[in-house]
Design brief:
696 residues; alpha/beta; Rossmann fold; N-(1-d-carboxylethyl)-l-norvaline Dehydrogenase, domain 2; eight-stranded mixed sheet; six-stranded mixed sheet; 10% strand
C-alpha cells in the first residue's frame, strides 16, 4: 500500500507504517489508510501478528489540529482504535520519538507497546483547552493506574521511555533498530502463543481513589482557576471507575465535543499557533545562521541578574556573573544557591540537578573574565547613563561577534547600542521577574541589530525554556507600555470612587492570578516608585497622573517585604488584608483633587482596565512595534498572567467585539480626555467590521 500508510509483510508479521510527514498527523487520509491496512492484515490468514509504527522523526504527533471546529469525517479515530483493540491477532505498537494526543491514544488501543530510547508519549490536549477525545481518559488509567494517568492528562507533559516502562505503558525498550526489535518481539509473542491483550479488559485498582480525586481537584482549583477543561478531564477519568469502557468513551466524547467549541479552547488554540508564529521575524530568514554561544555572562547579581544566570544554567549554558565588588558577588551567589535549595526542599528539583546547575555558574568582579562570552546580558538598574557606561566597557572588552544584550524593561535600546562601536551586535533581552521562573523573553530589535543576532537570541530563548517574542523599540516596548495604561486606569478608578480590594477582585474574577494592587505589593512598591520618579524627570508629561502610589511609598509602605503596602499582611502570610488607613488616604486624595466620589460598577472597572490596554495594543501594531496581534497575546499570557482561557488582550478584544471596544473608548475619551483617545487602527477595524485576527 503506497501513500500515507505503508503495508509490508515480514514472514507472519504485517508491518503497518504511518507515513504522513512531518509528524504523521492523523488526518482523514491517514485514518482511512490505517483502517484499510488493519482490515487487510486481519483478513490475511498467513498473518499472525501486526506491528504498527511511524516513519520519519516520530511515531505520531496526534490529530491534525487544523481539522478542529470543522465537520468530522469518517473514519473516526475512536473507531480505528476500537478496530485495532478488537483485532484477533496481537498488535504491537513500535514507538520512536513523540506519540502525542491521538498518537498516544492509538497505541493505547494496541495490545503491546515497545519503544526505543527516544520514545516519549503525552496527552497534551489540556494545553488546547480540551481533554483526550479518543479513549485516553479511559484506557490510560486502566493501563497505568489512576494517579499517574491523571498527572499525565492534566499536565499535558511528555513521559520519557524509561519512566514509561516503569509505569507499565511500555512492555519493552528496544536497543538497536526499533522496527527489527518490534518484529522480533511480535515473533516471540507468536512463539509463546500470546494473543491479543485488550486494554479495555484491564481492571483499575481503585485503592485510595476517593482521596486521589479530591486531592487532584484541590490542586487544579489553585493551578487552573477558571478553566473548564481540567475538571472535565477529572470527570472523565473518574467515569472509568464507574462505567463500562464504551459508556466512558461516550462521556469522554461528549465532553470533548463541548470543549472544542468553547471560547476557552478557541483561545488556547489561538495561543498554540500564535506562540509558533512568533518565531517568524520579518527580514530574518528561517535558515539564517546563528552565532555560537558556548559561554554567557550576566552583568549584575541582583534579583534579575541571578534569575537570568539561573535561566541560562537551567538550559545548560555556562554563565559568569559579574558584580562591582566581592561582597555583592558573594551575596548574590549565596542567594542563587538558596533559591535552588528551596526548589530541592519542595521536591521540584533533584539535588543532582542543583549541583550540576551550580557548577555552570561562576562569579567575577573583573571584566576580563567575561571577554570570551558569546553573549553578555546586562541586568543593572534602569538608569540610561549607567547602562551606556557598561556597554562602552563591554564594547572594549568582549570578543568580536559577541552579542551584547540589555535586560532593560523600557529604555531606548538604540541609545544603548550607540554607546558601542558595534550596534549590530546589540539587542534587548527583557526577562520577567523572577527570571528563573517566568517563561517570557521580550526580545527587542534595535534599528541596527543584525539578523543573525536576532536569530541567535530567538533560538537561545527556546534553548533555555523561554518563549521568545521579538518587538521593536519604544518606551516600555509592548508589555510595559500596555501595562502602564492598565495601571493608570486602575489608580484613576481609586480617585473616582473604587477601593483597591474592589478593583483587584474584578481582575482576579476575570482570570488574572492577582489584581494590580496585590501585584504591586508582591513586586515591591519602592521599585515602581523609583522607576516613576526617574520617568517623571526624564519624560515629563501633562497627562493625568495619580499620586496615590507615591504617597503610600512615602509613608514607608513597600508592600509584602515590610508587610504593609496597598494592603496589610500578617506575619508569615501573603494574604492581603484591606487597610482602613489606605482607604482614608484614597478618599482624602479624591477630596484634594476636587473629585466627587461615586459608586463604580464591576463592569466599568473591567472595561477601564482592559480596553485602554487593548487600545495601546492597537497603537503598537500600527507603529510596527509588535509584528502581529498574536505576539501581543503571547507576551501578556506568559509575562503578565493574562488568563489563558481569554487568549490574550487582542484575542479577547475580538471576542468582545471591536465595535463595542471602540464605543467604550470613545465614551472614555469624551469624559477623560486625549489620554484615552481611540487608536486609529481600532477605529478602522471597528468601522469596517474587521478583527485583529485578520492582521495575523
Amino acid at each position: 500500500m503506497v501513500g500515507v500508510v505503508e503495508y509490508e509483510t515480514h514472514g507472519a508479521i504485517a508491518l503497518i507504517a504511518l507515513n504522513n510527514p512531518p509528524v504523521n498527523a492523523m488526518a482523514v487520509a491517514l485514518r482511512q489508510g490505517t483502517a484499510d491496512a488493519f482490515s487487510k492484515a486481519e483478513a490475511d490468514q498467513n498473518i499472525k501478528a501486526i506491528v504498527l509504527t511511524g516513519r520519519g522523526r516520530c511515531f505520531c504527533g496526534g490529530a491534525d489540529i487544523r481539522e478542529f471546529g470543522k465537520p468530522r469525517k469518517e473514519p473516526f479515530l475512536t473507531d480505528i482504535i476500537n478496530q485495532i483493540e478488537a483485532c484477533g491477532k496481537p498488535v504491537v505498537a513500535a514507538i520512536h520519538g513523540a506519540a502525542a494526543g491521538g498518537g498516544c491514544e492509538l497505541p493505547l488501543g494496541c495490545h503491546y507497546r515497545v519503544g526505543d530510547a527516544s520514545a516519549k508519549f503525552a496527552l497534551p490536549e489540556i494545553k488546547l483547552g480540551l481533554q483526550p477525545g479518543a479513549g485516553g481518559t479511559q484506557r490510560l488509567p486502566r493501563l497505568i493506574g489512576i494517579a499517574p494517568a491523571l498527572n499525565i492528562i492534566l499536565s499535558g507533559e511528555y513521559v520519557n521511555a524509561d519512566e514509561g516502562k516503569a509505569l507499565g505503558f511500555f512492555d519493552e525498550i528496544i536497543e538497536g533498530d526499533l522496527v527489527q526489535g518490534a518484529l522480533d518481539y511480535a515473533n516471540k509473542l507468536i512463539a509463546e502463543g500470546k494473543g491479543p491483550r485488550p486494554t479495555r479488559d484491564m481492571n483499575i485498582d481503585d485503592t485510595g481513589a476517593e482521596k486521589i480525586f479530591a486531592d487532584t481537584r484541590a490542586k487544579i482549583a489553585r493551578r487552573s482557576r477558571g478553566l473548564i477543561a481540567p475538571e472535565r478531564c477529572i470527570e472523565a477519568v473518574e467515569s472509568a471507575l464507574k462505567l463500562s469502557l464504551d459508556e466512558g468513551l461516550a462521556l469522554e466524547r461528549k465532553n470533548f465535543d463541548e470543549l472544542v467549541v468553547s471560547d476557552q479552547s478557541k483561545a488556547q488554540r489561538h495561543l498554540f499557533f500564535a506562540e509558533r508564529q512568533a518565531h517568524k521575524i520579518p527580514g530574518v530568514a528561517a535558515d539564517t545562521p546563528v552565532r555560537e554561544i558556548n559561554k554567557a555572562a550576566v552583568i549584575g547579581c541582583g534579583t534579575m541578574g541571578r534569575g537570568i544566570a539561573m535561566s541560562l544554567a537551567n538550559g545548560g549554558v555556562p554563565v559568569t556573573v559579574l558584580e562591582v565588588n566581592k561582597e555583592a558577588l558573594d551575596k548574590g551567589l549565596a542567594m542563587t544557591r538558596d533559591t535552588y535549595a528551596g526548589s530541592v526542599s519542595r521536591g521540584s528539583l533533584a539535588q543532582s540537578d542543583m549541583d550540576a546547575r551550580l557548577k555552570l555558574i561562576s562569579g567575577t568582579t573583573d571584566y576580563a573574565d567575561i571577554a570570551d562570552a558569546g553573549i553578555v546580558i546586562e541586568a543593572v538598574f534602569e538608569d540610561m547613563e549607567l547602562k551606556k557606561q557598561i556597554f562602552a566597557k563591554l564594547d572594549a572588552t568582549c570578543k568580536p561577534g559577541a552579542i551584547l544584550a540589555t535586560n532593560t524593561s523600557s529604555l531606548d535600546v538604540n541609545e544603548i547600542a550607540a554607546a558601542t562601536k558595534r550596534p549590530g551586535d546589540v539587542i534587548g533581552t527583557h526577562f520577567f521577574s523572577p527570571a528563573n521562573v517566568m517563561k517570557l523573553m521580550e526580545n527587542v530589535r534595535a534599528e541596527k541589530t543584525a539578523p543573525d543576532v536576532i536569530a541567535t537570541v530567538m533560538k537561545l530563548s527556546k534553548d533555555i525554556g523561554k518563549v521568545g517574542v521579538m518587538v521593536g523599540v519604544c518606551d516600555g516596548f509592548v508589555g510595559n507600555r500596555m501595562l502602564y495604561a492598565y495601571r493608570c486606569q486602575a489608580e484613576f478608578l481609586l480617585e473616582e470612587g473604587a477601593l483597591p480590594h474592589q478593583v483587584d477582585k474584578v481582575i482576579t474574577d476575570f482570570g488574572f492570578p492577582m489584581g494590580p494592587f496585590a501585584m504591586g505589593d508582591l513586586a515591591g512598591l519602592d521599585v515602581g516608585y523609583l522607576v516613576r520618579q526617574h520617568r517623571r524627570k526624564t519624560k515629563p508629561s501633562n497627562d493625568r497622573y495619580s499620586f496615590i502610589g507615591d504617597r503610600i511609598v512615602e509613608m514607608g509602605r513597600h508592600g509584602q517585604k515590610n508587610r504593609k503596602g496597598w494592603y496589610l499582611y500578617d506575619e508569615g502570610s501573603r494574604k492581603p488584608v484591606p487597610d482602613r488607613e489606605i482607604e482614608k488616604l484614597i478618599v482624602g486624595i479624591s477630596g484634594e483633587l476636587g473629585i466627587v466620589r461615586r459608586d463604580i460598577t464591576d463592569e466599568e472597572i473591567l472595561q477601564r482596565c482592559m480596553y485602554p490596554m487593548i487600545n495601546v495594543g492597537a497603537e503598537i501594531l500600527s507603529e510596527g512595534i509588535a509584528i502581529r496581534p498574536g505576539d501581543i497575546d503571547v507576551i501578556w499570557i506568559y509575562g503578565y498572567g493574562f488568563p489563558v482561557g481569554k487568549g490574550g488582550p487582542m484575542f479577547y478584544a475580538d471576542q468582545a467585539g471591536l465595535k463595542a471596544v471602540y464605543e467604550v473608548m470613545s465614551a472614555l475619551h469624551a469624559e477623560h480626555g486625549d489620554m484615552l483617545q481611540p487608536a486609529p487602527l481600532l477605529k478602522e477595524l471597528a468601522s469596517s467590521g474587521k478583527s485583529f485576527a485578520g492582521l495575523q
